[in-house]
Amino acid sequence: MKNKPKILIVDDKFENLVALERILADMDVEFVRAMSGNEALAKTLENDLAIALLDVQMPEMDGFETVYFMRQDQRVKQLPIIFISAIYTEDYHQIKGIETGAIDFITKPVNPDILRGKVRIFLELYEYKRSLEEQNGIITSSHNDLEQALSRLEKAHEELTRSHEQLLQSQKLAAIGKLVSGVAHEVNNPLMAISGHAQLLLEDVEDEATKESLDVIYSETKRATDIVQNLLSFARTQKSKRSHVCINDLIESIAKLRTYGLPKSNIEIMIEFDPYLPKIEVDSQQLKQVFLNLINNATQAMKDEHGKGKLAIQTCRANDETVQISFVDDGPGISPEIIDRIFEPFFTTKDIGKGTGLGLSICYGIIQSHGGKIRAESIDGKGATFTVELPITNDELELAFYEEQLEFETVTAAGQPQ
Ligand SMILES: Nc1ncnc2c1ncn2[C@@H]1O[C@H](COP(=O)(O)OP(=O)(O)OP(=O)(O)O)[C@@H](O)[C@H]1O
Ligand SMILES: [Mg+2]
User: Fold this and answer.
1) What CATH number belongs to 243-415?
2) Structural domain boundaries in the chain
3) Ligand nearest to the CA of 349
4) Regarding the domain delimited by 148-235, which CATH topology (the fold level of the hierarchy) does it fall under?
5) DSSP track, 178-206
6) Which residues are 326's β-sheet partners?
7) Cβ(344) to ligand 1 under 6 A?
8) From the CA of 280, how far away is ligand 1's center (Å)?
9) pLDDT tens digit string along 54-112?
10) SS3 for 107?
11) Architecture label for domain 6-110
12) Tens digits of per-residue pLDDT, 124-172?
């Protein structure tokens, strides 16, 4: 329900206050009484007023002075004021702050019709102002709602575009995967035969030149077999062996393996592990392959660019459903023209014989088969960031929670004085 408009009536004589209220009795308003200038100032601060009716002649602080002080408050600057005076005077021109124009005069004895007429006009103005303010509030809040809806829409649009791109990418890779696995199976058998026969011949041959040629045949066949193995793991035809492991341990073992060869090459690996990472169900061998590929790519890129570099590996729980592992290097980065192609099989920028271009496509296949995501980001020239996200199940989350509790209790118990 709307509050009634409040009218402040100020007069040092109680009977005058009652008389004014009686004249305005049929109006749907609430009266706020004050019997001195000081009291009027206090009431002005406490109430949201529609109009003030002020007696001019009052002891201590007269009506003009009272209004002067009232106008110091911003909220009261626009308050319509009607002076009630026995003698008509021009003194009100001295009052600062009457520029609002909302000032009127009534002479005593008060003519009830004139007073009611003036009060009614000011009340109408007040109601009009109040409804304008309300509408303004509604407009502002609808405007805010609209802005929020717009930004939500923009976000949804971005998300949709991203998922669409991901869908295209995975459809493309799935089609290539099918083709590749068929070809790889067909090629695998003759390769095995060539490699086996080369080995048999190597055992009997005496002639050095023939031996050398057979060595080349054998080692090149071995290279081809490795490529086929990679193709098959990209197409994920091999059986996956899953167990609950802590990703931190996997990365640590891989990083250790890699650091043996790194000091000479000035490549520094910095690791930041989340100690409360829940164990998740993965194929350790496959994931090691992913992490090794990412570390190899980064170290090669940094070495080629400036002979040294820093690779930061970080694990964390992105939220209750995801473990996130990021690899941030300070190598050359990946240019926008090729960044969408790097997960395609055989895409490489390396020289012939130096890279097969299968590393990242294998990583993509493995992470997808784990229900996760892998993405690359790069500001050209400022290094590359590869982010792997792997899902956490509810059971895994609960288990991690109990383990955290247990560890906390053990530490607390150990810390208690004997
Ligand atoms: N950290 C990185 N910094 C810069 N470029 C990268 C990085 N990682 C990958 N790339 C780019 O992505 C391409 C594809 O990588 P991918 O691992 O699939 O194949 P490759 O490394 O070229 O070959 P292989 O993995 O068989 O040795 C690379 O040739 C390189 O251009
Ligand atoms: Mg690679």
Assistant:
1) 3.30.565.10
2) 6-110, 148-235, 243-415
3) 1
4) Helix Hairpins (1.10.287)
5) HHHHHHHHHHHHHHHHHHHHHHHHHHH--
6) 314, 387
7) no
8) 27
9) 998 888 888 888 888 888 887 787 889 998 887 655 555 555 445 445 578 888 888 99
10) strand
11) 3-Layer(aba) Sandwich (3.40)
12) 988 998 899 899 999 999 999 999 999 999 998 988 887 777 777 767 7
